[in-house]
């Protein structure tokens, strides 16, 4: 394994040996990481080590940050399954997106929300090719995810049918008086509290995986028309419908899986899956099994996002994208620079 990857992994392992000193530090760090690159990332992560305590986090630690974890346990039935979830990511072009904005990392978008019936999460990856036509690819993905988050709180939301949620959000986008042009991949999932069943709808090459007992026990199906051309929801410019690849919500690949306490769920865009192998993901995330403290869970999410970010710009990395390209007789060495979004959740 090349020296660059070894250095990244050693940095991650050092960071994973400690816990952050407060939840407010984690929240500010997640945003700060999104505004730094290269060796600054390593320096920031190693800097956190000096602030970390080797002892376990105190039971009295506050968990009030809106971006970390789920609603307080006291507000939920303790007998029901729920998710403790955190988010981390990086925009590909940090100059273009210098500030952290909740719900987006570059052209990627995400949401996570909870009700008494279910936890609902989603990621979407705006198709960057629209930028050459003067269209911001991030607008489409952000609107879609914000609509999903809002609709997940309506009285008629069916927490066992995430494909309906995705379809309604897409229809909402189509109905806008001011057209929102573009396209994106999307993966939306719900964890039904009463049954403990995970339901997911996936369009394209974003997706989810579930880790249990050190192994991947569930993974969403990637949808590609052909190499590097994923399925995608789209709204083309007027008169260009026949020239734009468009897949409807009915094309979503559906998934059901019976979750168990201690399972680790990762929902991510292809900026992760194209650059980090399943083997490396397991090496990091297997240690997160049973972690319910959002502060500690954030550490693992940051590690995965940092690893994906670092490897994406490594020209010598034997990435999953490179391996897949080779199978199609295409020469595409190194990592694939892209926006990175990771939502990491622990089942409790």
Automatic annotation (TrEMBL):
It is an enzyme of class 3 (hydrolase). InterPro entries: PPM-type-like_dom_sf, PPM-type_phosphatase-like_dom, PPTC7. One of its GO terms (cellular component) is mitochondrion. Its cofactor is Mg(2+); Mn(2+). Keywords: Hydrolase, Magnesium, Manganese, Metal-binding, Protein phosphatase. Pfam families: SpoIIE (PF07228). The keyword Metal-binding applies. Residues 87-347 form the PPM-type phosphatase domain. Gene3D superfamilies: PPM-type phosphatase domain. It catalyses: O-phospho-L-threonyl-[protein] + H2O = L-threonyl-[protein] + phosphate; O-phospho-L-seryl-[protein] + H2O = L-seryl-[protein] + phosphate. One of its GO terms (molecular function) is metal ion binding. Its EC number is 3.1.3.16. SMART domains: PP2C_SIG, PP2Cc. Belongs to the PP2C family. This is Protein phosphatase. It comes from Drosophila mojavensis. The gene is Dmoj\GI14933.
